[in-house]
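Practice problem 4.
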């Protein structure tokens, strides 16, 4: 009697305990489902997938209509046979599992239903306690009251883990189908669906990669169970059992195209959203990259450099909006993750003379009537930098020449004197206005390419794009649209087109004319493409870096050639001759741009605000420098100056620039500004200025690479 009473009290106590624990569980509608995330993908401009941003968990949710019924049937048969008969908790199943576990003296069967497992995946922690199990059961019953069986099953199949390969866990049936069979879940066959259905109970133990025998045993168990509950026939089960597992681990989630550009985009996204959101946010990221141009760039590089030794990088910017159309290199991503096109900072050589030319032109200096004497500039010629000496590329001097000829000959000594007259700080400001982002020091040698930190091909392509588009500087951008799992899309301000009017189009048009001449008859003849184009060569001292940077009205491209890991002197690689900007870089640029330009062969637009230029009389211009003796000017034949004409400021250009028209889309807001595409309306051009005198306290750097052609 006493024992019976105690037993009854024990049962009542247990019931009270269960009731109290269940009552302590919060209502389902007060809980927020755990965001399991999904893999973010990056696509090219034409919609081609470049790859998925890597995460420890791989998930690609799919609608229930895309999940084969046989996979749903297999899951119910092996995981929760009475799924369509209970209300979230299968009390018969709990009793059955308890008896089997008691008889076998170990846990061989669980009592959790599919609904309870979904609750565990989405709402509560996974610790193995009775309290958790009781709360799980209560919430499962609530979930069944809110959603139908089909919704719950589809949600479960999209959230349950299916195993891990290479440190990455497949969450949901779509990720599992891709990871194990390299196909979409819709394409699964019966034997494949049965294998997947058997994994959630113990993904590691039944792994078809690490334990294929156990995986096959489990698959066959699922097939027999499906036959037992009459969702397939015994003959179908037997036929599927005879088939091999057929596992073909795929690179669907790990494979990538254009890996360097892909990493560039990923870093941009992480800077905006953070690593976790990017890796598991299920973003679809549309980018600017043109795969045909990428292929053309690599073809041009390999066509000239295959088997020779140096590496090369190409970047192309659309001058009309700053879109990065090409970011290619000859580097092997498997050997080095360093992006030569965007991260490689190398000395630009004489391509930086264009910044000096633009400084002179923006100040109204007439490039055709302003002359300097090409001569050897020995130590002491510049009192502000007494150790600064300059020579020409080949050691010869061309006498008196105007700035156009000096540009076509890439004469270092003429440009060094021009920099001294204009002031190195003014050249620095122009470089920034054109789009250079690397820190500059305002040294005299910088205008000749003697930079302390170097520049990247991305910077140079964007800087020249400012000339190509009539003085509009763009912020380079790689991302055009970001779509979230709920279907809404956005483009944060940092990724929107940002255009700033930095120069009058009359100034850039004059620079364009000179750089067009350089391709026709200057140092860049090997870059000719049979269509209007301008550009400049660049080579550093001892031929360790060689460049060609140029543009058409629609594309601005920078080509760098060199050895990425060290300053190797390329003295014989060009058929036994040194590699200069006018050799491989110009040839690669020409080969590439002939394809990249497509069918367009139009000329540059006439300026809306023609610039006014005047002869410039600085300390070193015209007379060759104050106090220059006949002996010092042997090549120019100019005697000692009678005096130095003081600087005369050119007349200012006051005509305002016409507003730039945007390509594509309907006009919105004032002036045709489209806030969905642009961060802010293009700024007006700056007021023209006269040349500033050089800072007498500014010193030129000593040592380092000396720029040549």
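Answer key:
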């Amino acid at each position: 009697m006493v024992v019976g009473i105690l037993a009854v009290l024990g049962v009542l106590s247990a019931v009270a305990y269960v009731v109290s624990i269940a009552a302590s569980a919060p209502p389902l509608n007060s809980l927020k489902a755990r965001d399991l995330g999904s893999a973010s993908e990056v696509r090219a401009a034409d919609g081609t997938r470049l790859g998925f941003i890597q995460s420890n968990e791989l998930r690609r949710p799919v609608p229930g209509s895309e999940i084969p019924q046989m996979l749903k049937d297999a899951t119910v048969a092996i995981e929760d046979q009475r799924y369509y008969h209970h209300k979230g908790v299968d009390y018969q199943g709990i009793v059955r599992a308890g008896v089997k576990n008691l008889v076998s003296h170990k846990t061989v069967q669980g009592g959790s239903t599919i609904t309870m497992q979904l609750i565990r995946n989405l709402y509560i922690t996974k610790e193995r306690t009775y309290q958790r199990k009781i709360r799980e059961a209560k919430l499962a019953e609530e979930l069944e009251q809110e959603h139908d069986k089909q919704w719950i099953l589809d949600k479960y199949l999209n959230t349950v883990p299916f195993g891990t390969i290479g440190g990455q866990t497949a969450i949901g049936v779509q990720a599992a189908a891709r990871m194990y069979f390299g196909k979409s879940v819709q394409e699964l066959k019966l034997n494949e669906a049965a294998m997947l259905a058997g994994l959630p109970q113990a993904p590691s133990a039944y792994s078809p990669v690490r334990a294929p025998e156990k995986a096959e045993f489990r698959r066959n168990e699922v097939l027999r169970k499906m036959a037992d509950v009459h969702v397939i026939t015994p003959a179908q089960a037997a036929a599927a059992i005879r088939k091999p597992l057929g596992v073909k681990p795929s690179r669907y989630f790990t494979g990538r195209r254009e890996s360097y550009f892909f990493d560039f985009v990923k870093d941009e996204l992480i800077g905006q959203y953070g690593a976790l959101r990017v890796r598991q946010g299920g973003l679809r990221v549309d980018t600017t990259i043109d795969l045909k141009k990428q292929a053309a760039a690599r073809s041009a590089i390999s066509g000239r450099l295959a088997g020779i030794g140096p590496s090369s990088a190409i970047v192309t910017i659309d001058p009309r909006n700053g879109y990065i159309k090409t970011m290619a290199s000859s580097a092997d991503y498997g050997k080095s993750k360093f992006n030569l096109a965007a991260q490689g900072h190398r000395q630009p050589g004489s391509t930086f003379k264009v910044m000096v030319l633009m400084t002179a032109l923006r100040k109204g200096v007439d490039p055709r009537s302003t002359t300097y004497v090409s001569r050897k500039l020995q130590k002491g010629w510049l009192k502000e930098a007494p150790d600064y000496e300059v020579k020409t590329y080949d050691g010869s001097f061309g006498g008196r020449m105007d700035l156009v000829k000096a540009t076509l000959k890439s004469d270092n000594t003429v440009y060094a004197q021009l920099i001294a007259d204009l002031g190195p700080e003014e050249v620095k400001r122009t470089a920034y206005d054109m789009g250079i982002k690397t820190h500059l020091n305002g040294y005299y040698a910088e205008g000749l390419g003697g930079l302390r930190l170097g520049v990247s091909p991305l910077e140079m392509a964007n800087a020249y794009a400012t000339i190509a588009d009539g003085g509009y500087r763009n912020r380079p951008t790689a991302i055009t649209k970001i779509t979230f799992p709920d279907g809404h899309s956005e483009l944060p301000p940092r990724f929107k087109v940002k255009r700033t009017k930095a120069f009058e189009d009359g100034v850039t048009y004059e620079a364009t004319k000179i750089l067009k001449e350089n391709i026709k008859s200057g140092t860049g003849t090997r870059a000719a493409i049979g269509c209007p184009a301008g550009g400049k060569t660049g080579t550093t001292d001892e031929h360790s870096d060689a460049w060609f940077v140029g543009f058409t009205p629609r594309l601005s491209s920078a080509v760098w050639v060199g050895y990425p890991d060290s300053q190797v002197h390329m003295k014989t690689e060009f058929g036994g001759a040194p590699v200069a900007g006018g050799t491989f870089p110009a040839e690669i640029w020409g080969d590439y741009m002939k394809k990249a330009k497509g069918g367009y062969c139009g000329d540059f637009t006439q300026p809306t605000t023609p610039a006014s230029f005047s002869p410039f009389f600085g300390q070193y211009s015209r007379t060759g420098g104050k106090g220059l003796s006949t002996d010092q000017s042997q090549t120019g034949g100019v005697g000692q100056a009678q005096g130095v004409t003081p600087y005369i400021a050119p007349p200012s250009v006051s005509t305002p620039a016409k507003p730039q028209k945007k390509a594509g889309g309907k006009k919105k807001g004032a002036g045709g500004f489209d806030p969905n595409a642009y961060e802010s309306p293009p700024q007006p051009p700056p007021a023209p200025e006269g040349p500033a005198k050089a800072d007498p306290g500014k010193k030129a750097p000593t040592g380092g690479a000396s720029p040549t052609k």
